[in-house]
Amino acid sequence: MAPAEPPVLALTTGEPAGIGPELVVMLAAQSRPAARVVAVGDPGLLAERAAGLGIALEPLELAPGQAVSEAAPGRLPVWPVALRAPSRPGQLDAANAAYVLETLDVAIAACRAGHAAGMVTAPLHKGVILDAGHAGFTGHTEYLRDACGVEEVVMMLATDLALHATRPGWRGSPALRVALATTHLPLREVADAITAGRLSRVLRILDAELKHWYGLPAPRIAVCGLNPHAGEGGHLGREELEVIEPALAALRAEGLRLDGPLPADTLFTPRHLEGVDAVLAMYHDQGLPVLKYAGFGSAANITLGLPFVRTSVDHGTALDLAGTGRADPGSLRVAVALAAEMAWRRS
Ligand SMILES: NC(=O)C1=CN([C@@H]2O[C@H](COP(=O)(O)OP(=O)(O)OC[C@H]3O[C@@H](n4cnc5c(N)ncnc54)[C@H](O)[C@@H]3O)[C@@H](O)[C@H]2O)C=CC1
Ligand SMILES: NCC(=O)COP(=O)(O)O
After folding, report:
1. CB within 6 Å of ligand 2 — which residues?
2. Which of 11, 27, 201, 235 has the least CB density, counted as fewest CB within 10 Å?
3. Is residue 125 lining ligand 1, measured as CB closer than 6 Å?
4. Atom number in ligand 1 closest to CA 121
5. What CATH number has the domain bearing residue 118?
6. Shared-domain flag, residues 11 and 139
């Protein structure tokens, strides 16, 4: 039987003034990913960023959904989207917010139509999209959830080689996987968003997707408390007693293996992480600083609960580095490799 063709991945190039476009050309020039990667963005912009870095790479424009064969060396297949205004590295322009959103729409449509097995996203700038009047936009994760019409998705970041870590014979350091109960919310709103319903939905998705992607028959998930010392028996906040513990008890009765709620500061220590397959943090800055300390530059962000594969980088637009060629493409490389492996498994 002929081997299956490598999966197609749509790679959105992100905020045009950020490091996304140059990371895409750096990656295309440096490595041969285990997937047929099609960049989604402005071909002229990509050619300009490649030239600026002295990289010989020519965009190869494809029609929307056009099948892509293995990219020839020096060619970057692109599903084109036109910039709305010229873009200079490091200088945000709200006129290009619609361009960034269109790149997402093209990638989503390709995934939904089966032209791509998944999408990988370079970073966008949430603030400039909101400044441009796209009220309610808070990030790819929520945009994809709404575009796909699913009630809940889960943001999980994992240090590199996370899928490989469970392969027989793997001797590497254990991967850290951190999922979030809430994503892009002002801190003031977090406590109200921690409801039994949300925790049940998030933990069921996390449990199911850890089983599916990582081959873990009964994943063990450690759940952080919300308050210092997990509420100190109710003296430092009552969410643990009134919301989190009852939600975890109900899920344990369904068979989920859950520890907690545990004080987040002690949970993230080696002894407490031993044997834990993933941590559920209650909010963005409870979990992600730990993950980034452990693996910034070689970690990826995975959206769990979508009908197709989506991974992303572990960093933002880094406007301070845009156009300099000093940005590290490591996380994008990991995100593409992970998406390719997930897409192979799904096929
Ligand atoms: N997946 C996405 O689309 C993400 C987008 N963002 C957005 O990015 C924007 C900027 O966010 P910041 O908090 O400033 O974070 P940032 O990640 O853009 O920058 C933080 C620091 O890390 C450095 N850095 C980031 N990526 C790097 C790379 N590849 N190589 C070397 N150094 C790198 C930057 O130079 C900066 O010093 C915000 O609008 C935020 O919403 C942030 C995270 C993820
Ligand atoms: N800090 C992670 C992050 O902001 C990723 O957001 P998203 O745009 O992938 O939803």
Report:
1. 139-141, 288, 301, 312
2. 235
3. yes
4. 1
5. 3.40.718.10
6. yes
> Quick one: 184 and 250 in the same domain?
yes
Q: Choose the most confident range, by mean pLDDT, from 62-66, 167-171, 319-323.
A: 319-323
Binding site: which residues? 140-141, 184, 229, 284, 292, 301, 310
Q: Does residue 261's CB lie within 6 angstroms of at least one atom of ligand 1?
A: no
When the pLDDT of each residue in the chain is averaged and rounded to a whole number, the result is 92
ipTM entry: 0.98
The verdict on the CB of residue 303 being under 6 Å from ligand 1 is no
* Distance (Å) from CA 122 to ligand 1 centroid: 10
Kindly give the distance from the C-alpha atom of residue 57 to the centroid of ligand 2, in angstroms, as a whole number.
Answer: 29
- Asked whether residue 163 falls in the same domain as residue 132, the answer is no
Domain residue limits at 118: 1-150+306-347
Which strands form 58-61's sheet, in the order they lie side by side? 58-61, 75-80, 36-41, 8-12, 118-121, 309-312, 299-304, 154-159, 177-180, 278-281, 220-224, 257-262
Provide the domain count of the chain: 2
Token look-up 């959206």 returns 303
The CA distance from 93 to 15, in Å, is 10
- Residue 102: count of CB within 10 angstroms of its CB: 17
The ligand 1 atom nearest the CA atom of 184: 41
| pLDDT tens string 72-128 | 778 899 999 999 999 999 999 999 999 999 999 999 999 999 999 999 999 999 999
